[in-house]
Amino acid sequence: MTQPDVTIVREVFDLTGARWTVPVLVALEASRMRFGEIARDVGGVAQKQLSATLRELERDGFVERTAFATIPPRVEYELTPLGEELVDGVKGLGAIAFRNRDRIASARREFAERAESSAAV
Amino acid sequence: MTQPDVTIVREVFDLTGARWTVPVLVALEASRMRFGEIARDVGGVAQKQLSATLRELERDGFVERTAFATIPPRVEYELTPLGEELVDGVKGLGAIAFRNRDRIASARREFAERAESSAAV
Q1: Phi/psi class of residue A61: alpha, beta or left (left: φ > 0; alpha: ψ in -120 to 50)?
Q2: pTM of the predicted model, to two decimals?
Q3: Binding-site residues on chain B for chain A (CB distance < 8 A)
Q4: Do residues B33 and B39 make contact, with C-beta atoms less than 8 angstroms apart?
Q5: What are chain B's domains?
Q6: Cβ of B10: how many Cβ atoms within 10 Å?
Q7: How high is the ipTM of this complex?
Q8: How many Cβ pairs closer than 8 A exist between chain A and B?
Q9: Is the Cβ pair B13, A17 closer than 8 Å?
Q10: Nearest to B59 among A88, A89, A111 (CB)
Q11: pLDDT per position in chain B (121 positions), as tens?
């Protein structure tokens, strides 16, 4: 494995770890959408953040942006086949996190208790 | 799905997107290790960053830290069963990124070329 290969893998984790990537991927998995539709579907995302997220996903080939020469112009976003593969991986990891959410939450409580009791010594 | 549930899933993506999480998980998948062994195995990680990464993994229940009352004290880190599940998810996503690394790299080149040619207009 060469250094650029490792870097790309790391950058994909970096991308999926970014605040809005997973919600945007989940929204686009359902259907191709316009910018405003994605924003509504995701909820709570600022325009600038959503633009940046879509731009990164487009740059890496996960999302395709199509501009239609209508008046007013219409722009749609959709997952590419590569983006669909990414969504599979994201769903796999997300499902592991989701089904273990109670174990993670109780691990955090125990960790906090241990930290408190060692601080009390 | 309640809000804390969604938050935990997001935090797991945040954690796996952090710079040193995946290399540390991969190191610990091979065997339980001492701090210095992990540092050597991962390579290029500062002590402070490695401490913070291990602490987060321990907090969420993915890594167990065991201190032995030897002189000098010995501390070992190992994956918990929950951590092993996380590694499975990470490997799934990592494998998708790795096998598509050339497609991602060429998507980036095309994106840069489109950006250049539209800037030239």
Answers
A1: left
A2: 0.91
A3: 1, 4-5, 8-10, 12-19, 21-22, 58-61, 82, 85-86, 88-90, 92-98, 100-101, 103-108, 110-111
A4: no
A5: 3-120 (1.10.10.10)
A6: 16
A7: 0.90
A8: 137
A9: yes
A10: A111
A11: 566 778 999 999 999 999 999 999 999 999 999 999 999 999 999 999 999 999 999 999 999 999 999 998 899 999 999 999 999 999 999 999 999 999 999 999 999 999 888 877 6
Q: Phi-psi category of A80—alpha, beta or left, where left has phi over 0 and alpha has psi -120 to 50?
A: beta
Sign of the Cα pseudo-torsion (A93, A95, A100, A101, in order)? positive
The DSSP code sequence of A10-73 is: HHHHHHHHSTTHHHHHHHHHH--EEHHHHHHHH-S--HHHHHHHHHHHHHTTSEEEEEE--SS-
For residue A73 the two structure tokens come to 């112009």
Q: How far is CA B8 from the centre of its chain?
A: 16
Q: How many CB atoms lie within 10 A of CB B95?
A: 12
A67's CB contacts (< 8 A; 6+ apart) are A73, A74, A75
Chain B nearest C-alpha distance from A120 (Å): 19
> HSE on the CB side for B6, CA within 13 Å?
9
